[in-house]
Description:
Layout: E1 9-15, E2 18-23, H1 35-45, H2 47-52, E3 55-57, H3 68-80, H4 89-92, H5 96-101, H6 125-133, E4 147-149, H7 151-164
Antiparallel strand pairs: 1-2, 3-4
Amino acid sequence: MATECNPEQLEFHALGRRSVVGRFDGGRITSDGGGLLLREVDVRIGLTERLADCFEDYRHPGLIEHPVQTLLAQRIYGLALGYEDLNDHDVLRSDSLLAMLVGKTDLTGQRRLRDRDKGSPLAASSTLNRLELSEPGQAAGHRYKRIAANPQALDHLLVDLFIESHKKAPREIWLDLDAT
């Protein structure tokens, strides 16, 4: 049986009403095209959606531009694409591909609430920093760090993802507790 390939384009999961197609004929070019494959896996297993369910968001609902799932996706995709430093996101916040990966429909950031944010569809490093530094017991009353992880829910999610990744229960599981 012959494999059918179209070397001119690859089709990925849609984003709302937009089709997502990888083409190889120029235009806006990025070196982060592998992120499209990460998004395919994320959509298939619902990783960032399920991770977001493990957080409590105490921010005022009317002032939220970046839902928890979007913040988590931005940070996770950034890490997976090699941008480990939070300050990388001060440049990445204007990246249309990363905006598409995390589910933003306004890829250029022209519909942002504040004029100073227009042109940048994603969160800046300061917003992502608040997410990373929030502590579960303090987020509800804190002025800035108002998103808190639920450690038990995260633990359960990791176990669930592991179990779901196997068609049948593994015969043996090794837990290596060596800290070195």
